[in-house]
């Protein structure tokens, strides 16, 4: 009987054991991946250092060869001089030829046994103490000797080579060869080496006496020093490469391996992520939905989405609370909407038509009506909704309830009106004593005229009084009563609280309206007021009372600024003219002017240079002028004092 063959099951590692082998291989691969660039970097660094040492040895040999060649030429000449087989003229020609061949030689001198110069070539220079000491040791030993390098006269370092002239065992003079060490490096260090390295000569104290840095200073990564042991001078040839340390990825091969390895790791990570993503997708989706719901419930900004036909497709809880309607009554609703206010229905329809045609207004203000009938001002931001395929699917709007902002703006407007009223009352308080004096004159005149009339009516003998006799006195009393009434009415109109009322007004009439109050202030300090206004000034659209307050504040400041100058200079000028479609009014005083430290905060609220001042006058003036679309500025008066100028736009098309 045949028995069926059973396929053996593959051995499967359970639990975390199935991850041990791939994780171990990945860690081993990462270790090799990290070791390979580091090893390549170290090898390149060693190679550069070895090349620098070899090149430094070559430069050292070049420097030694140049010094030995010059020393050999000097010794040959010294032998001929000591033997007397060469004339002084030939010596001069020889040393000239030596300097022409070796540019690093700055001077060659032939000295006799008395130290006198017999022949020389090059620029004379002072002799250092080190050079004199080297010359003495050269004569004592009978051998050539180098002096220690030294800087002379702020120039580059110089080194002298002293070669004694020996004749029959006696000193017959010496040859002195002077080296410019910077030129020595320029002549002996090849250009290709100088392009990659900074070369320097250091003395026994490690002080740089010469250098050549064609490519800039060295980086200090690759360095090598070689001593130049000269007879009498200890020099150190120091080379410092301008190359930086090799980068972690020094060549294309290592870079390619790294890129491929990173790609392999990325593929493995993507595979791992895909497996784990399938397991976590459901939980992530639930978490995202919970987060989105919590975010929508916590927002105070209303969100509303509409399709291309204007139907609402989405609202958040904040929008529902704003209009007082549940979500189910809003979703799928087509215009007109329940929250549209009846008085703004035309505006809604016009905006909806613009949205449907694609001409949406990104930001605008309107009014919504809550379900309980309450109106709320809102600020709406509209933006197009673009689907994943790039198609325009509708509009998303963000709605802000700006009731608090509107309330704050209204409170601010009321505060400004109160400040202006307070300023007018303060102004009237300051001139109250002058006002009483001004009223006293017409009242006294009225009393005098009426008393005279009464006396005439009760005259002696009981004779009737003719009406023509009483008429002049009564007419004068009436005129004085009108004068007093006009003063009271102007004060009442100035301090009366009312809403701003913009009308077409003439600037000269505004000046005349407060002329009496300005003169009351001016009489206190004996100031004369001069008014100069151009004929046929165009009218401006403004609130008369605000402009009168500005004029009164500016003239009061100008009058008070002139209280300490000579009486004949106390003239306050008010000028008005038209320029560039605007009407400019200037108040010019001859007072003390404005200091620089005061100028910076002159228009700041609550800033005042007066002990009893509130610091609100100029601030209110600027606010009032800017309320009318104008500007208020000031500048120094060339003759001393200050010029305050405010300009207002002239009403177009009105002659």
Automatic annotation (TrEMBL):
- Histidine kinase domain mapped to chain residues: 434-652
One GO BP on record is: regulation of DNA-templated transcription
- Gene Ontology MF: a single term: ATP binding
- Give its E.C. classification number: 2.7.13.3
Using the record's annotation, list all stretches that form the PAS domain.
287-359
Q: Which InterPro entries match?
A: HATPase_C_sf, HATPase_dom, His_kinase_dom, HisK_dim/P_dom, HisK_dim/P_sf, PAC, PAS, PAS-assoc_C
Q: What parts of the sequence cross the membrane?
A: 20-38, 252-272
**Where does the PAC domain start and stop, copy by copy?**
362-414
Q: Which keywords annotate this record?
A: ATP-binding, Kinase, Membrane, Nucleotide-binding, Phosphoprotein, Transferase, Transmembrane, Transmembrane helix, Two-component regulatory system
What catalytic reaction does the record list? Answer: ATP + protein L-histidine = ADP + protein N-phospho-L-histidine
**PANTHER family found in the cross-reference section:** PEROXIDE STRESS-ACTIVATED HISTIDINE KINASE MAK3, SENSOR HISTIDINE KINASE
Name of the protein: histidine kinase
In which organism is this protein found? Massilia polaris
């Amino acid at each position: 009987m045949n028995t069926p063959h059973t396929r053996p099951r593959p051995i499967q590692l359970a639990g975390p054991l199935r991850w041990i082998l791939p994780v171990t291989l990945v860690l081993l691969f990462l270790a090799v991946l990290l070791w390979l660039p580091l090893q390549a970097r170290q090898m390149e660094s060693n190679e550069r250092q070895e090349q620098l040492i070899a090149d430094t040895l070559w430069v050292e040999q070049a420097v030694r060869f140049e010094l030995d060649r010059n020393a050999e030429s000097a010794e040959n000449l010294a032998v001929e001089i000591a033997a007397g087989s060469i004339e002084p003229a030939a010596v001069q020609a020889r040393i000239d030829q030596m300097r022409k061949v070796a540019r690093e030689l700055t001077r060659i001198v032939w000295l006799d046994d008395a130290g006198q110069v017999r022949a020389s070539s090059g620029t004379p220079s002072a002799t250092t103490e080190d050079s004199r000491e080297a010359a003495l040791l050269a004569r004592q030993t009978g051998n050539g000797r180098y002096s220690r390098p030294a800087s002379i006269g702020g120039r580059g370092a110089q080194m002298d080579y002293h070669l004694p002239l020996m004749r029959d065992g006696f000193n017959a003079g010496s040859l002195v060869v002077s080296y410019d060490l910077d030129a020595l490096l320029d002549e002996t260090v090849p250009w290709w080496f100088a392009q990659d390295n900074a070369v320097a000569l250091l003395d026994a104290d490690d002080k740089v006496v010469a250098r050549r840095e064609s490519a800039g200073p060295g980086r200090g990564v690759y360095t090598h020093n070689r001593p130049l042991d000269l007879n009498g001078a200890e020099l150190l040839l120091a080379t410092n490469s301008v190359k930086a340390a090799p980068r972690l990825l020094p060549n294309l091969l290592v870079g390619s391996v790294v890129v491929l390895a990173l790609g392999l790791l990325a593929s493995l990570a993507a595979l791992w992520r895909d497996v784990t993503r399938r397991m976590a997708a459901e939980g992530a989706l639930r978490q995202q939905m919970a987060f989105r719901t919590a975010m929508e419930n916590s927002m105070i900004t209303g969100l509303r989405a509409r399709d291309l036909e204007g139907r609402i497709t989405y609202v958040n809880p904040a929008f529902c609370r704003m209009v007082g309607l549940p979500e189910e009554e809003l979703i799928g609703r087509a215009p007109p909407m329940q929250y549209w206010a009846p008085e703004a229905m035309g505006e809604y329809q016009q905006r909806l038509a613009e949205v449907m045609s694609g001409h949406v207004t990104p930001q605008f203000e309107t009014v919504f009506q809550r379900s309980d009938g309450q109106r709320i001002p809102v600020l709406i931001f509209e933006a197009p909704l673009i689907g994943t395929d790039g198609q325009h699917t509708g509009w998303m709007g963000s709605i802000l309830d700006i009731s608090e902002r509107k309330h704050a703006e209204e409170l601010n407007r009321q505060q400004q009106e109160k400040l202006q009223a307070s300023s007018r009352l303060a102004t009237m308080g300051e001139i109250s004593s002058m006002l009483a004096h001004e009223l006293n004159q017409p009242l006294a005149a009225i009393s005098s005229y009426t008393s005279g009339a009464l006396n005439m009516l009760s005259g002696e003998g009981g004779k009737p009084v003719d009406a023509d006799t009483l008429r002049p006195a009564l007419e004068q009393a009436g005129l004085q009563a009108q004068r007093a009434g006009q003063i009271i009415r102007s004060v009442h109109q100035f301090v009366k609280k009312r809403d701003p009322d913009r009308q077409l007004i003439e600037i000269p009439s505004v000046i005349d309206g407060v002329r009496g109050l300005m003169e009351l202030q001016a009489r206190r300090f004996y100031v004369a007021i001069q008014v100069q206004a151009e004929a046929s000034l165009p009218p401006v659209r403004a609130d008369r009372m605000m402009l009168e307050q500005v004029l009164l504040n500016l003239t009061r400041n100008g009058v008070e600024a002139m209280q300490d100058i000579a009486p004949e200079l106390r003239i306050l000028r008010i000028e008005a003219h038209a320029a560039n479609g605007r009407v400019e009014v200037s108040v010019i005083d001859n007072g003390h002017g404005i200091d620089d430290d005061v100028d910076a905060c002159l228009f700041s609220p609550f800033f005042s240079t007066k002990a009893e001042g509130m610091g609100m006058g100029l601030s209110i003036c600027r606010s009032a002028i800017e309320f009318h679309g104008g500007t208020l500025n000031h500048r120094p008066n060339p003759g001393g004092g200050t010029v305050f100028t405010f300009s207002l736009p002239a009403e177009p098309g009105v002659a």
